[in-house]
Amino acid sequence: MKRLALICALLATPVAAQDFSDAPGGVLRWLDKLTGQTGNMELSRGQSLSNGRLTIQLDSCRYPSDNPAADAQAHLTVIDSSQAEPVFSGWMLASSPALSAMDHPRYDVWLLRCVVPGYAPPEAEESPDSSDEAEAE
């Protein structure tokens, strides 16, 4: 009986919601599955960039206030110039890109992180192209 009361008390205890902060921008990675080309793009909130047939717009990027390196979330709108409707419009999670992935036969886009003022990301998230440039110098 005591065990049941303890379980009920634990279930009734509200779980603290994690506070999120809005970031001024985000870093995305794209892949052209046909050519194998890949790269990173940094977008400010509301900015869009084109890559091939895709136009990618960052609508919002947010991160846990107490840990900028943790799970970033971004709302993206992705438009393929050959289609009337967006091919993706929704939230992507940096830690689980497959949870809400863009379904496109040629291109793939996913969130790496939010751009957080005063926070330097780990070097491991650099673009594959930028690491080649660093080695050449």
From TrEMBL:
Residues in the signal sequence: 1-17
Domain of life: Bacteria
Keywords: Signal
Name of the protein described by the UniProt record: DUF2155 domain-containing protein
